[in-house]
Every structure is written in structure tokens, then in C-alpha cells.
């Protein structure tokens, strides 16, 4: 049968091609976010010496985040609070003959040191910040200055360290990098599986029963020549049960199957019942579990009857008795017993 020639390999390739869409879309979203927002500067900020700093040029070129080496900072006497917690201390300094307000974290300024000779910080450039305007208004009132005068003296741009290194910024950096690495890693792994199906996860799982490459070749040959039973995406050959659905690919020797049963699911929307689908569950040796969802009852009943006839040791149907027998066969609690025994000896 030509349509069954190398069906397992083709199904593995199709399965991982379909799984490529999610990480590719997610990676594209991350790239778009990196283009729209200054993510690169947040993750890898450029270092600037004081004489190199031009807040106007940096802000208008969308370089909102950077590392700054600043000198001679003076405490204004004001702090920034959030939920009764001090998130920063306001300082002012001269940058290229321009007075700039700088908000430092408590650790950086040692809880509000009067003066700081030199400091290196990662900060975000803010323009016409409401908090900075409020600070300058309060300073003008304290010093009996004209508000317009102090606003014209101090730069409209300010530097905020808490906004660049706070919990929100660190969480964004962590998850952005994590999701980016996950997406790239998933794309690479799926491409490798597509190029070399023999090392894909469904084939590697057969290591419990022999050499994966040989099992794949034998299963392909048996499937291509004469399957004993065939449904849309489940097949039984002389020695193997094979699944080739869009939900996954599986190969398991018939003599390794321990337990089979079906589970029905009713699909409905509000009070309207659409259909009932059936899922085939297979438990094989070496804790190999297979799930074949969304099949019709006649297909699953035929598979179960054939497997039960081919291997009389298979437990058929879901029941507490069968579940306990499978636990005993697989010795599921062996690790727990060994741990309990070890701890009792230690005590």
C-alpha cells in the first residue's frame, strides 16, 4: 500500500511541523515587542560617561535605558514611595552644565546619603515626569522660588534607577529572555526532529523495548506490507500498535501492552450536545503511556478487541481492580518503599 509507505516517518514530520507554528508566532511577537519598545537597551544597556550623556538625543533616539557613570550627586531631601515603601531617593547633579534630577534606589544611595561623589547606575530616561514636576514644585515652595524659574533651570529629562532595575523591569527581562530562549530552542529541536525522525521523542521512547532505529524500521515495514487492523490514525501490525494522529505519534510492541481502556467525552455548548468522542488509553511496560483522543467508538472497540485477542495478558477496561494490578505489575511504589526503608534505617 503506497499510502502506508513510511507513514510513521511522514507522520512524525507532519506532527512536528504543526508544532512549529506556536514557537515561531511567539518568537515573532517577541521580536515585534523588541522593535516597538526599547527592549534591547533594557536587556543590554550601553555605558555612558558623564561627558558623553545627552538625555535629549538619547530619549529621542528611543534609547530610554542605559548605564550612567555620574559624579557629585546631592540629596534633595525628597523620596519616592509606593505602598508605604520607599522605592527611591531624589538627587540632583550637573550633566554637561545642565541640572538633572536622578532617582536612586535605597541600596545605591545608602538610604539617602547627603552627597555621592561617584556612582554607576542602570537607569531609565523619563521626560516631563509628573513625579519630577511635583518634586520641583515642592522644592520651589520650600526655597521660596518661582516655580517657572526652577522648572526652566532644571532639565525636563530625569533619570530613574528604580524604573530600570525594579521588580517589574526584572520580571519583564526574565520572562522575555526565558520565552525567547524557549521559542528558539523549540524551533531548533522540532527542526532536528523533522530532519531526523529517528531521534524524535516518539521513536526514542521505544528504547525500553530495543534499538529505536530497528524498531522504527520494522514497524514501517510491517505497516507498509500488511497491517492487521487499520483505522484513520491507529494501526495494528503483526508486532506493533501504531498511532499516527495529529495529536501525536506512538509505536509500542503488542506484547509490551499491559492495560487498555476507553474514555468517552461529551462535547456540548451551553445546553446543546454536539457529539461524543472516545479516547483510547494504553499503558505499556516501562511506564509508557499512550493517549489516542477523539476517535469513534467502533474504531476503539475494534482496536481493544484485537489487542486483547493478540495478547491475553492485557487488562481490558477501566476499573479499580485493573488499576491496582497495573500498579503491582509496574511496581509504581518501589521508589517510595525504598525511600521509606532508607529513612527508617536512618532513624
Helix and strand topology:
Layout: H1 7-36, H2 39-43, E1 47-48, H3 55-60, E2 65-82, E3 85-95, E4 98-104, E5 115-127, H4 130-142, H5 147-153, E6 157-160, H6 162-165, H7 167-195, H8 201-204, H9 212-225, E7 229-230, E8 234-236, E9 240-245, E10 248-253, E11 257-269, E12 272-284, E13 288-295, H10 297-310, E14 315-316, H11 320-330, H12 334-346
Parallel strand pairs: 1-2, 4-6, 11-14
Antiparallel strand pairs: 2-3, 2-5, 3-4, 5-6, 7-8, 8-9, 9-10, 11-12, 12-13
- In the CATH scheme, the class of the largest domain would be Mainly Beta
Helix content bin: 40-55%
Mean pLDDT rating: 88
**Numbering strands along the chain, what is their spatial order in the largest sheet?**
2-3-4-6-5
CATH topology of the largest domain: PH-domain like
What is this entry, summarized?
43% of the residues lie in helices and 31% in strands. With 347 residues, it is an alpha+beta fold. The protein has two domains: 41-160, OB fold (Dihydrolipoamide Acetyltransferase, E2P); 204-337, PH-domain like, CATH 2.30.29.
